[in-house]
Amino acid sequence: MSGVLPLSSREDEPFIGAGNGDSLAIEMEQETSTSTSSGGSSRKKNSRLKCFGVDLSPDNVAVAMVYFVQGVLGLARLAVSFYLKDDLHLDPAETAVVTGFSALPWLVKPLYGFISDSIPLFGYRRRSYLVLSGLLGALSWSLMATFVDSKYGAACCILLGSFSVAFSDVVVDSMVVERARGESQSVSGSLQSLCWGSSAFGGIVSSYFSGSLVDAYGVRFVFGVTALLPLITSAVAVLVKEQRVIGQARGPNVPLGNSSFLKSSKENIIQLWTAVRQPNVFLPTVFIFLWQATPQSDSAMFFFTTNKLGFTPEFLGRVKLVTSVASLAGVGLYNGFLKNVPLRKIFLATTVTGTVLGMTQVFLVTGLNRQFGISDEWFAIGDSLILTVLSQASFMPVLVLAAKLCPEGMEATLFATLMSISNGGNVLGGLIGAALTQIFGVTKDKFDNLAALIILCNLSSLLPLPLLHLLPRDDSDTASKVYTELEESGEENCKYHGTVTTTSPKLSSIEMT
Q1: Which residues contact residue 188 at a Cβ distance below 8 angstroms, ignoring those fewer than 6 apart?
Q2: Residue 269: CB partners within 8 Å, gap ≥ 6?
Q3: Any idea of the CA torsion for 151, 154, 158, 160, to the nearest 10 degrees?
Q4: In which region does residue 15 sit, left (phi positive, over 0), alpha (psi from -120 to 50) or beta (all else)?
Q5: Cα–Cα distances in Å, from 442 out to 85, 145, 448, 492?
Q6: What digits encode the pLDDT tens for the residues 63-105?
Q7: For a pLDDT cut of 70, what percent of the chain falls above it?
């Protein structure tokens, strides 16, 4: 949504209360089971650790930790912004283009699903790719900390880091999709809350230090520290329960020239298209794409708050801390009160409210907030907090809907496709925002038309609302409807061939879904 201040981090803290029996605080459930033997009966007690109402099995812990890493990688977000602005001397439009370019790996997530499902690495389809993703992420940020000194080098390294996160995202999301399929909207919402709550908690861990470390040690130091974080993804790969693929004794299996592999890939693409073109999948996907594709003014606002208002990296780190907590509050708002509310009502309420509140950024640009006795700093914090809660609460239904649209046997690839389309809309919105920034003449030291740009971007958020009817009225049996349509279309053999893999999402260019 364009109504989110660029000061806000993405997306992702102290846990707040939730309803419907779920808890954002970690809880212990003691379950007593009675087993009968020939000599009598005995009672066995099993303790199950839960978070967001979800059992913390090793697989779920691995998923949560990967999302945690995605959140904690926000440590480098401010460093990247200041590096592009101060070290490379880019203007707002160029910064938006570079960050948009770095988001490209999130647009081809189905490809990662095909690779992971069809090409086991050292006998594993999940573990090995998680390890590899972590190593690539560490490499990208290590290069940023040492050798990179141009906008092209920075774009390539950020692209590599984004690729590592996107691939690991694919590898964990199928676990979420497998568990969400056939479950109620409430259970699916709890699973997504665990994922995004973990990401939000990671954002809290890194938020304050993201600014203070830039102030104290510089951007290169922050990039070096960030290089250590993707290694956590490699480490938690051992928690994933996975059977070794038979026949993979030692090296990797790369059957790219195998005719059966090519035939299987072709069949998968045909089956994927057959699923996507079904009305119950295609129409909601069109709405989500358009909803995400509205223009954004984030880069312009970042330059205004730093160059015009003089916000320091340390202060922006504090804002990021607040918005990280707000992001978790958004998860809690959805998990506690909105996950049983029809999707159309959630989108309508959050979009309209976010648009209206997003207009208040004009107060900051024009200085009207000071006429009411509110300092720029406090106004920025309050505005970012409210908008981030709304943004996160409105994005959660997108994840739930995408997970429930996936029929059995196509979980990983179809979910990856839907998230790629959503991310594509987000990237398009950023590029449209960059073009409008250029058209309105907003530069790193000229902000005369920034208020008009903000108003236009916020009002554009309302444009997709007339298409709300494209969303299902009740998604309780959406997946079964999709599967029925696949059968009716004559695709009897509509199941995806291969082991299920994963995918997921995130809301900034470095940290997407």
Answers
A1: 180, 400, 403, 404
A2: none
A3: 110
A4: beta
A5: 14, 30, 7, 55
A6: 888 889 988 998 998 999 999 999 999 999 889 888 888 888 8
A7: 73
Strands across the sheet with 54-55, in order? 27-37, 40-51, 54-55
Q: How far apart are CA 170 and CA 504, in angstroms?
A: 6
pLDDT at 487 over 80: no
pLDDT at residue 196, rounded to an integer: 73
Phi, psi (degrees; rounded to nearest 5) at 484: -60, -40
pLDDT of residue 417: 81
Q: Residue 36: beta bridge partners?
A: 41
CB 165 within 8 A of CB 137: yes
The sign of the dihedral angle between the CA atoms of 453, 376, 299, 465 is negative
d(CA 495, CA 263): 15
The residues near 438 (Cβ < 8 Å, ≥ 6 apart) are 93
510 CB contacts (<8 Å, ≥6 apart)? 73, 76, 77, 80, 99, 102, 103, 158, 161, 162, 165
Per the model's pLDDT, the better-predicted residue between 32 and 101 turns out to be 101
Q: What is the distance of C-alpha 41 from the center of its chain?
A: 49
Write the CB contacts of 297 (distance below 8 Å, at least 6 apart in sequence).
Answer: 2, 6, 361, 433, 436, 437, 450, 453, 454, 457
SS (H, E, C) 235-304: HHHHHCCCCCCCCCCCCCCCCCCCHHHHHHHHHHHHHHHHHHCCHHHHHHHHHHHHHHCCCCCHHHHHHH
CB half-sphere exposure, 219, CA atoms < 13 A: 21
Cα separation of 478 and 493, whole Å? Answer: 20
pLDDT score, position 122: 83
CB atoms < 10 A from the CB of 79, how many? 26
Q: How far apart are the first and last CA of the chain?
A: 14
Tokens 């203007």, residue?
91
Tokens of 488: 């009716």
Kindly indicate the confidence band of residue 225, based on its pLDDT and cuts at 50, 70 and 90: very high
Instruction: Show the tokens assigned to 190.
Output: 């709890």
- Which residue spans within 335-471 are E strands per DSSP? none
DSSP for residue 374: -
pTM for the full model? 0.72
Which pLDDT tens digit goes with each residue over 258-273? Answer: 566 667 667 777 777 7
**Cβ neighbours of residue 479 under 8 Å, at least 6 residues apart?**
181, 182, 404, 405, 406, 407, 408
Residue 77 identity (one-letter amino acid)? R
- Residue 159 identity: L
For the record, the structure tokens of 84 come out as 């592009």
What pLDDT, on the 0 to 100 scale, is given for residue 264?
A: 66
User: Any idea which residue has 């035939």 for tokens?
Assistant: 263
